[in-house]
Each structure stands twice: as C-alpha cells, then as structure tokens.
Amino acid sequence: MPSSQQSKSRRSAKLVICEAAIIAYVAYFAALGLKWLDIIYSANTLTILFNVAIFTVSVVLINLSVGLYEARLREPFRGIIRRIFVSVILSFFAVTIISNVIVSQFAPNPLYAPTAVPLIVLALVIFRYFIHNTDTFYSRPKLLIIGAGVRASVIEKRMRRDVDCANFELLGFVPIAGDDKQEGIKNEKRIDIALDDELIEYISVNEVAEIVIACDQRRGTLPIKVLFDARLKGIKVTDLLDFMERETGQIVVDLMYPSWVIYSNGFQSQNYFRELMDFWLNITLAAILLFITWPIMLLTALVIYLDDGRRTGASVLYRQERVGKDNRPFDILKFRSMRPDAEQDGARWASKDDNRVTSIGAFIRKYRIDELPQLLNVIRGDMSFIGPRPERPEFVEQLIKEVPYYAQRHNVKPGLAGWAQLNYPYGASVKDSLEKLKFDLYYVKHQSLLLDLLILIRTVEIILFGKGR
Prior knowledge:
Layout lengths: L3 H33 L8 H21 L11 H26 L9 H21 L9 E5 L3 H9 L10 E6 L22 H9 L2 E6 L10 H9 L3 E4 H9 L9 H6 L8 H41 L4 E7 L5 E7 L23 H8 L7 H7 L3 E3 L6 H10 L12 E3 L1 H5 L6 H17 L2 H16 L5
Parallel strand pairs: 1-2, 1-3, 3-4, 7-8
Antiparallel strand pairs: 5-6
C-alpha cells in the first residue's frame, strides 16, 4: 500500500505532467488559432514548437518556485489563481527575452505571447478548480491512530484543516490504557474497540494503510500482537514523531525523547567534499547576486540616507552581533530599517507592527531588500544561503534555558533563508522561537543539496508575494 509520502510525490508528479501537457496544448493551439485566422502568415512549425517548449518549461518551473506543486500549500482557491497569474506573466517575460534576444531566429509574431498568456491562465485555473474540488489524482491512504491522550491530541491541534489531512484519510483514534483522557483528544472520532482480534478485523475490513503510535504510555499497553500481524500484512506502523515530521515538515521538540534521536534517520555529518562544495557554491551564488543587485542596494542606501540618515547622521547599514555555527559570534550586515534610537533601552524582540520601523524600513523588510548586505556575510563565510536564521546572543542565552534542544540549531551555519522562514514566517517571542525551532531541527536533520535547492526556489515565492518581514 502506498505511504503518505509516496502519495504526495505521485500527486505532485501527476500535477506537473498534466499541467505541462495542458500548457503545451494551449500554447500550440494559440499559435494555430492565429495562423488559421490569417493573423500570423509566416510562422513555421519549428518556431511554434520552440516557443511552445519555452512556454511549457518556464511556466512549470515558475509554478514550482511559487509553491503550486507544494503538497502542503495552504492557500484558498483565490490564492492559487493569483499564483497562476503571476507564474504565467513571468513566463511571458521569459519567453520574450529568450525568443527575441537570446535565440532571435525563433522570435514569434508579437501577437503570439499576448494571445497565449490569457488562454494558459484560463486553462490552468479551470484545471486547478477541477482538482481542487475532487480527489481525482489519487486515493488517499487510510490512517488509524493508536492512542487518544495528550500525545495524540497533537495531531488534533496541529492538523485541524482539511489541507493538513489532504494526503490521507484519518479513520479515528483508538483509546488505550494509560492515555490521559482529560487532556486528550476533544473533537476527533474515538474508536472504542478491543485491542485483540476485533482490532485486527477492523484494520482488515477498513483497509488501513498505516497505523500511527501516539499513546501516552507504551510499556505494557501497546497491542503488540495486533501491530505484529499488521506489519506482516504490509501495513505501515509509524511513530507519532515520525508521522508529524513527515506530514508537517517539523520536529515536535516538546515530544522528543533521546532514543528517538539516536535511532532515527538523518543528522548526517558533512564530509569534507560536501563542505567544500557548499563553500564554493555559496561564494559563487553570492557574487552573482551581488553583481545583479548592486543597483538596488545603491538605490536603497540612497533612499535610507535621504529619509533620515542625512538628518540623524546614522549609517545606512546596520551591524549586529549574531550567533553562528558552533556558537561562534559574528557581525551581521543589514540595511537599517529602524530608527537610530530603536534600542536605546536595550535589546528587545521585534514585533509585527513595530513602531521603531521607518516607512522605508517597512518596505525593504517586506521584500527582503534589507537582507541584501548579508551577501557579504556569505562571501566571508559567516553564513550560508540556506540555514536557520542567526539570533542575537542576548536572546540565544535566554532561549537555550527555556527551549529544549535550542542549542542544536547551531550545528550548521546560519542562512539568508531557511525552512522555518518558509513555514513559520514570523517570530517575536520565546513561544515563536519554539515553533521555528521545530522547523530548524527538521532542516538540521535532513539537510541536503536537494532540500537547499527547494528552499531557495520557495523563497522566491516569499519575495514575489511580499511575505517577508
């Protein structure tokens, strides 16, 4: 039986294939339509096919970058329409540049792209509406939770929305001895059933694909015979921590126990070759981005200076001590987004609508422009492109005392972008730091070039839709 992770991968692959086919068909149809209407006279087949291919590849890649193939995309249908629109418009510019500048011999008629764009948008919106309201792509595997106490309630509290359970069908929770009924699940379905042959029959009749172990006490309470029988029949048995890690992309720190860390996969050490490759990739990418963005940086510095720098004499750049890999301190560079007297009373958490932020500062934070000087930190080796965001020493000291396993996020270099920023974009308290740590530890455990690439692509979404802070 397919696991939830396999189902998600298959669903994404089917989406990519189907949408690529739709884009190619509509883009080709747009060219033929203009030709049939005698609007385009000179289009040859090779030119049409080349532009169709460019349109298809660019839309699919940009769809990926704006999160349209993300299994945990938490957007209403209106948000999906917006992403499709942005993706196709960006593809329009990509096709224009490639076909008219880079490979000019394949330049299409000027009317081709403006005709294809609205047709592609319409086709993708109709297709997404269809799959948004049906389970056409795959049948969801059925899950059964063993336990209905405090640990099981984590699933109820953190996976309340339909989108959180989009990759599986939750049959219910089976209470067992030792569960804290008072603090356990409140609203989800309880399945009161004997933990013997009756449960085995229930699993068989309902075609359960996976059993999640989420009981409060395991010793002497788990239905070992049932679980043994289930495994022999190919049913997957998963620990609660592994289930939450897989489905939410985070590690539930407050439920972690040492033996889970010891026996779980991940937390691979970086070898010399990987570190050397990471070092040169970071420097090369930082140098390229510096070359591309220096006019934006120059303009930003000028605007900050004219806004209040000229009057106050404050620098347009802001240096602040942060904690890096292995707890080594370094000075981070940012464009100044707050008033010069923002911390005259000492360090304090930033807040969502912080009145210390200048009008220019609010804009450059929203679109992450204030982070651009950190490219110099990457070149110096203080930071990587991808990793947990570095925190201030004053806060780190407090967080290590109050948040379990917080120090472990310093096992890797801090980054310009991170897994936590994609999944929990705002943090201004100890509680927020705990939530972000769950994603940071997931990154530390699963760090790889592939995950780094995914985070880098998804970060484009944050910049495009102004979700930065």
